[in-house]
Amino acid sequence: MRYIYTLLCSVLLLLSCGCGKEKKPRLVMVTNATFPPYEYVSGDTIDGIDPAIVRKIADALGYELEIQDMSFDSVIAAVQSGKADIAASGITVTEERKKQVLFTHAYVIAEQAIIVKNDSPIKAAADLKGKRIGVQHGTTGDTFVTKNICEPERFANGPLAVAALKTGKLDAVVVDGEPADVYISQNPGLVKLPEPLTSEEYAFAIGKHAPELHALFNRELYKLRSSGELTSIIRHYKEINSADKTKKYQSASFRDRLQESIYINFIKDGRYRYLVRGFLITLQISFFAVLIGLVIGFGVAVIRSTADSTGKLKIADFLCRVYLTVIRGTPVVVQLLIIYFVIFGSVNIDKVLVAIIAFGVNSGAYVAEIIRGGISSIDKGQLEASRSLGLGYWQSMRYIILPQAFKNVLPSLGNEFIVLLKETSVSGYIALADLTKGGDIIRSQTYDAFLPLIAVAVIYLAVVMFMSYMLDLLEKRLKRNE
Ligand code: ARG
Hints:
Layout lengths: L1 H15 L9 E6 L2 E2 L3 E4 L2 E3 L1 H13 L2 E6 L2 H9 L5 E2 L7 H4 L2 E3 L4 E3 L1 E6 L15 E4 L3 H9 L4 E3 L2 H9 L5 E5 H10 L3 E3 L7 E3 L2 E3 L3 H16 L2 H14 L11 H14 L4 H39 L3 H16 L2 H12 L7 H26 L3 H9 L4 H31 L11 H12 L3 H31 L2
Parallel strand pairs: 1-5, 1-6, 10-11, 10-12
Antiparallel strand pairs: 2-3, 3-4, 6-15, 7-15, 8-14, 9-12, 9-13
Helix pairs in contact: 2-8, 11-12, 11-14, 11-16, 11-17, 12-14, 13-14, 14-16, 15-16, 16-18, 17-18
Bound molecules: arginine.
């Protein structure tokens, strides 16, 4: 146990240093990189109009720019809570949002547009009534459709909605006009209706606590505009995104199509690397979370059983009960978001570490109850016998009760670890590029749901099978030791 603890501490220490050593001050920009030409993942980096403008300004102000990719509905919250300095994500200026953040001068005029299939009976906004409409969650397209047309189907990003439209799950998608142009250029068979739904303006969002940064940004933005650089950045990215980059499925046979699909989803542009990197992050989070869960679980279980059987440790027992109730009573995603946005709201902390803590603390509650079950399954006579042999309470616990309890609960513990591994798939909510998110990134680039999802599923399955195998081995060994 002590060994595990030391290991854990050193790892946490290692993870938490390494930040904050650079000379230039850091400027954290958040975005949702599924929105070409404004922002999109390209190889290892996030590129597009917004990153390019912000990078220019950051350079001018002497900042080192760090770009974080997250869900669009979190970017405003991220600057508002101080987690990030600036949100640059094709954000439309709205009265609602103005209450939460400061907007810079607008840099683009935009609109909401409608995408449909070529042969769709929908020809204008008036035809949308009663139709299945897809939007990106939390966008002005979402607000507009909800208010004026009907309840839309909300997707994590535009490309996922477009993919749903292509497969006939939707009748139309409402998104911003320029991204719509890029989406349809990559997906033959789709068209953008000529008549836009709204007229809007994009600006960058900065936290209300940072009026100085806001003023500096406006000053630099003004300079970029006067020098004509702003226009040329925008033109450049529109041009490179209007070229049709995806190869279409032209081949006839199923085998050829599959081969082509494998090529596009995994090989082209080294896309498999999103899965490899994501896989490593998933493993890292799960491994350390299991360790934290075990440490917390053992501690809580021992405290609770001791309190139950001896009537001591009343306060500690009470605290443990509160912990169990809160953790088991709320979803792990919500806990993850609270830990990231609220508890570590204003601290600059590695996101992997946040996930490790969140999943570790969560798992601890389940492990605690599993182990407590194990402890109470051990006959009372064992404790009495060992105490009458002269061992103290804690010694009996440690040498007689816990080892037996552990063995009894090993299958349930194994189950908990498997659940934990799969639960880490919600890490994408705090913009961690774990395995599931890796698949999402590929999907948003290739508009193909099938292969990326199957690949992700197969990888999880393989890890779970490997874990079950190892647990089996451990169980057998413990049996032999009996
Ligand atoms: N302009 C819309 C809004 O502000 C959509 C922006 C979506 N941006 C993105 N990077 N996905 O709500």
